[in-house]
Write a structure and sequence with these properties.
By secondary structure, this protein is α+β, with helices and mostly antiparallel strands. The protein has 8 helices and 11 strands. It has 2 domains: 73 residues, Arc Repressor Mutant, subunit A (Orthogonal Bundle), CATH 1.10.10.10; 162 residues, 2-Layer Sandwich (Beta-Lactamase). A hairpin with a 6-residue loop joins strand 9 and strand 10. The longest helix has 22 residues.
Length: 261
């Protein structure tokens, strides 16, 4: 009997509905029916029916009298339920909160999604000057410090290059940089996620020694002088990543629950 692929069981109408929800999620702000039609290549009539259905169930909403749509509270509630059941988040969140309290900078949990990284969760700072929240946003994996962590520890070596190719289709991490990341467990980038920003990323390991996620501290460059990064933030993040990795079952280090300061 021939084996059917997953695409055999795809329901076109459901795919369209999910594409609509994903588009609303990526937009982040209210978007018009025409804008959704242009983006998704679907007729306004089809989109209107889907939007009306989602609106009735609370997954889409709009202000009274407005013709623009946004994600509704039902979508948020599903996302929160997913996060509450995610082991990595449950184990990382207390450490993230402690880091944010001690240093008053935004702390993120970043995970890999194919060729992208997703800023999955955050604990924000109370600073008046801070970076626009990145939670829920995706970036190409090679463009952020967090993504370079995943590339450096990529077991098949697919993310590594010894010399720049003549025609690079996508920038990747060099072997020199990858080796440094693998030795330290850290990667630091300036202005990769926005002008004037600094991101310090630390690898989180699971039981088998694979990178399960990344802790990332993000803030403006003017609050990240070299002495603060090297003498204060990196030592604290080193303890933090070991604490989370330990909770994930990683046995590569022997350490206790230390205070982050």
């Amino acid at each position: 009997m021939p084996v059917r692929g997953k695409e055999t069981y795809c329901i076109h109408s459901v795919e369209n509905a999910l594409a609509l929800l994903e588009a609303l999620c990526e937009e982040g702000e209210e978007v018009s029916l025409s804008g959704l039609s242009d983006r998704l290549g679907m007729t306004k009539a089809s989109l209107f029916r889907l939007l009306a259905t989602f609106e009735n169930r609370g997954y889409v909403e709009r202000e009274p009298g407005s013709r623009k749509y946004r994600l509704g509270m039902a979508a948020y509630e599903i996302g929160q339920k997913f996060l509450s059941h995610m082991g990595l988040l449950r184990k990382a969140r207390p450490v993230m909160e402690q880091l944010a309290r001690e240093f008053n900078e935004a702390i993120y949990l970043v995970v890999r999604r194919g060729d992208e990284v997703l800023f999955l969760d955050m604990v924000d700072s109370t600073q008046q000057v801070k970076i626009v929240p990145l939670v829920g946003r995706r970036f190409p994996i090679e463009t952020t410090a967090a993504g370079k962590i995943f590339l450096a520890f990529d077991l098949d070596g697919a993310g590594l290059k010894s010399t720049p190719p003549k025609k690079a289709t996508k920038p990747v991490i060099s072997r020199v940089d990858a080796n440094q990341v693998r030795q330290t467990g850290f990667c630091i980038d300036q202005s990769c996620i926005g002008d004037g920003t600094t991101c310090i990323a630390a690898a989180l390991f699971s039981g088998p020694g694979e990178v399960a996620g990344v802790l990332a501290l993000v803030g403006p460059e003017f609050r990240m002088p070299g002495d603060r990064v090297n003498q204060v933030l990196l030592p604290a993040l080193s303890i933090a990543k070991e604490m989370v990795s330990s909770r994930l079952g990683y046995l590569g280090h022997v350490f206790g629950e230390k205070h982050l300061s």
